[in-house]
Amino acid sequence: MDYNLETLLDEMKQEIDNWVAFIRDKNPEEIVKRTTLQAGIHGSALLEYADGRVDVMDGDLDFTIRERKAGRGESLTEQQVREGLVPELAAYMRGQLNALPSALIDYHFTFTGRFQVREGEIYVRILEVVDELKKKGLLERISLYLTDKLEAVTYPTAPLETFFLSRHLLDERLFPDAEPGRIIAVFERILQVNQGNKHLAEHRSTLTSALRDWAEQHWLPRYFDHIGTEWQIEYQKKSDAWLEHTEQGPIELVLYAATLILKYEPSYSRSAGLTMLNCAVELGSARAQRLMKEGSGTFAKEDVSLRDERVECSANDVFAEVSIAMKQETEESYARVLRFLIRLLRLGFPRSYQIKLNSGVKQWLPIKGLAKSGTHRFFAGALVYPNLHPLLEEYARAAMQPFEWYTDTEGEKNCMPGSYAVFGLGLADKAYFPLVEQYMEKVDKEHQSVQNDFTVALVERHGVHAETIPTLVKCMLYSTDSMKLKIKGDLEDERHLKLLLDQVRGLEEYEAEHLVYLIWGGTDKLKKLSAKAEGDRGTWLSELAQAASRG
Questions:
Q1: Tell me, what's the pLDDT at 211?
Q2: Which of 305, 327, 303, 325 is nearest to 314 (CA)?
Q3: Is the dihedral of CA 61, 67, 71, 75 positive or negative?
Q4: Nearest CA to 111 among 16, 8, 10, 216?
């Protein structure tokens, strides 16, 4: 080996040493104890050499993206890398791995290199190691988890367990003959036992991410060349690509992944789901074509379509969309659509959905901060007709579900299905206050804040008095600290103060503190106010302050 190559090799070994020192700086045994489904922490390392610089880091290369650029002024050749560097680097890394605590390294470990050479950029698998004993133990623990924890019980599971389980089941080194139907059944079971749990969205996102990674890194490269860039996904079918089973086998997982992405992921991820479906169509999958055109086929045709002289509706559960064309803007037209939606949801259509509306009427609820979406516009239009209010309540009760969202809203405008109907009804008539309170109890205020805007509108519409205070308190309990509500003067009135205190009694301290913050700006301000007040008013203000600061 010539002097320059030996010097470069020493530098690369030093960078490996630096990486090893970095990953040693943790307590691996404690980390892998969190779940029986984790065999180790690190499963790959990447060495990069370009412009005379060497870096070693966690991670692997996406071998589906190849941009071969000429190495300007680079003296290192591909032959020197493959014959001179790779064998030495593999032996050195193997020795380093053998000296590490077992819990640091996963059952399967890859060491990959990306080198800038005279001929361009090359990608090399330097080392691949499989710990068969660790692999055997992991397989046994996966089997126990499936039978003893996932299949035998009905209580929610931990998101961390879903993270590892989903990736293990899709790992062809662990399960080379896995049945796609079985994997899908397990994933659906995870979603089932976590239904209504605050971590449902996290579980679903974890499963979707695992499926997408598998599809993009393993399935798609078998049949398609990636002709796009790292930032722009574009595939071209390989000339010899052929799929023997176009409806069964791994393609089932691809279609399942695409469906989850299109139903639940943010709008910027939809292109990935559409790409998977389009690729499946190119390979001859009739089911992929049907999914794009008609949906999953789970529902009878008459349940996902409605067409008459007044309205035209079609629902696609794969895209989680309901298309509505209002041919006639009448009370009966909206009634027919509402009955269609109620039946659809009761049959199991995704509650996280959106309405694509074709209507000449642009009606919005008198609430600032709501998304100007087709879904919002439809319900605002229906709320114009008082005779439809009972039907709108029926819809809201069918639609409301914690941790589900209308999919044409994002960020601060997120809202639970049923929101527009509940908000409109609450503003229209105090008779719907019980519905408003039931809605609030389902709100996930960590991911939704439109209830703040509704609560402000509720006060503006109905005021603060004996009839509204119980519902107003419920709304405040599920609003966020950022809400700006100007009701301090109203609630300091003795007629209202006693009613507020009656509502606060029995609340947890943090709930009372939250109410006090929204009304008075904090417990300290309330204490100062109560110290100056006299008689019953002072007593009641003091009791409120104590309820918010018992500790």
A1: 97
A2: 305
A3: positive
A4: 16
Cα–Cα–Cα angle for 200, 473, 520, rounded to 5 degrees = 110
Q: Given the DSSP bridges, would you call strands 321-326 and 120-130 parallel, antiparallel or unpaired?
A: unpaired
The type of residue at 484 is K
Q: What's the confidence (pLDDT) of residue 234?
A: 82
Residue pair 354/406 in contact (Cβ under 8 Å)? The answer is yes
The strand pairing partners of 314, in sequence order, are 305, 323
Q: What is the pLDDT of residues 297-332, one digit of tens each?
A: 889 999 999 999 999 999 998 888 999 999 999 999
Stretches where the chain sits below pLDDT 70 are 1-3, 60-74, 230-232, 267, 550-551
- What integer pLDDT is reported at residue 265 of this predicted model? 82
Six token digits for residue 71: 């190495």
State the burial class of residue 516 (Cβ atoms within 10 Å of its Cβ: 0-12, 13-18, 19+): buried
Alpha-helical regions (H) of 441-508: 450-462, 469-477, 488-492, 494-504
As given in the structure block, the two tokens for residue 21 are 């020192």
CB 473 within 8 A of CB 491: no
Q: Tell me the helix, strand and coil percentages in the chain, rounded to 5.
A: 55, 10, 35
Distance CA 405, CA 424 (A): 18
Residue 113's nearest CA partner among 54, 155, 156, 173 is: 54
- For Cα atoms 131, 132, 136, give the angle at the middle one, nearest 5 degrees: 120
CB neighbour list of residue 502: distance below 8 Å, 6 or more residues apart: none
Strands, E assignment, 198-304: 224-226, 235-237
The structure tokens 């998101």 sit at: 159
Q: Quick one: angle between helices 509-520 and 535-547, nearest 10?
A: 120
pLDDT of residue 64: 43
What is the distance of C-alpha 183 from the center of its chain? 20
Is residue 147 within 8 A of residue 165, CB to CB? The reply is: no
CA dihedral 356, 359, 363, 365 (to 10 degrees): -20
DSSP symbol at 297: S
> Is residue 512 within 8 Å of 544, Cβ to Cβ?
yes
DSSP state string for 2-57: -HHHHHHHHHHHHHHHHHHHHHHSS-HHHHHTT-TT---SEEEEEEEEETTEEEEE
Nearest in space to 267 (alpha carbons), one of 227, 321, 226, 327: 321
Residue 270 contacts by C-beta under 8 Å, 6 or more apart in sequence?
A: 261, 262
Say which residues have a Cβ less than 8 Å from residue 52's Cβ, sequence separation at least 6.
Answer: none
* Tokens found for residue 454: 């509704």
- Tell whether the torsion through CA atoms of 148, 152, 156 and 160 is positive or negative: positive
Residue type for 361, please?
Answer: V
